[in-house]
Amino acid sequence: MTSPTTPEPFGERLADRLSTRHFRVRPSAAVRMLRRLGRIDRAAYRAIAAIHTQPLDRPLRSISDFANFSKPWFAVAGVLAVFGGARGRCAAVTGMTAIGLTSFVVNQAMKLNGERRRPDRTEQGVPESRWVRMPESTSFPSGHSASAAAFAGSVGHVLPRLKLPLRVAAVIVAFSRVYTGVHYPGDVVVGAAVGAVIGRATSTVALRRRAPSAHRRSSS
Q1: Which domain holds residue 143?
Q2: Distance, CA of 156 to CA of 55 (rounded, Å)
Q3: Model's pTM, two decimal places?
Q4: Can you list the pairs that 80-86 forms with residues at least 24 positions away whose Cβ atoms lie under 8 Å?
Q5: Percent helix, percent strand, percent coil in the chain, to nearest 5
Q6: Do residues 70 and 105 lie in contact, with contact meaning Cβ atoms separated by under 8 Å?
Q7: From CA 59, how far away is CA 180, in angstroms rounded?
Q8: Structural domain tally of the chain?
Q9: Closest by alpha carbon to 102, among 3, 198, 200, 6?
Q10: 81 CB contacts (<8 Å, ≥6 apart)?
Q11: Is residue 199 part of a domain?
C-alpha cells in the first residue's frame, strides 16, 4: 500500500480498483500485471532522474516549456499552410484537427477519470536544475506527448517526407516531460499511443476526402 504522499502509478491505481470490485472470476493475473507495471513505471522514473546529464537540463527544460499549448505544432502548421501548397494546407488542417481531437480525449475523458497525481520530484530525486512549472492537471496521460504524436502521425501521413523529423521532435518532447519530472514514463507512453492512433485515423479520413477532389482537378 502506498503512503498518501506518494503518487501512485496508474497501473497500481487500476489494480486497486479491480481488486476491490466483485467479479465472477477474480482478475488476479491482471491485478498482478498492473502492479508490476506500476513498479516498473516508478523505477523507470527514478532511473531517468538519476541520469547525470546536466548539459541537457537547460535545452530539455526549454523544449518542455515551448511545447506548452502545442506551440511547436501550431508553428509548423502555419509554415505548411503558407508555403506548402495545397497538400501543405491539407497537412496543416489535418494536424490541427488531430491535436484538437486528441486534446479532447486526453483532457476531458482520460485525465478526469485517471486521477493520477503528479510525481513528487523532490522525493524521487529529480534535480532542481531540470524543473519546469508543475502543471495543476492530473498526470495520466501526458497531453504534451499525445498532441506531439497526433501531429507527427497525421502530418507525416499526409507529407511522408516530414514523417521522420516530426517523429523525432515528438519523441524529444515526450522524453522532456519525464526528464523534467512532471510525468511518469507510463503517462508519456499511453499519451503518445493515444495521439498516434487518433492522428493516423484523422489523416486517413483527410486523405480519403482529398482524393476525389484531387482527381477532379487533374481531369478538368
Answers
A1: 54-219
A2: 31
A3: 0.84
A4: 80/155, 80/159, 84/159
A5: 75, 0, 25
A6: no
A7: 11
A8: 1
A9: 198
A10: 88, 89, 92, 93
A11: yes
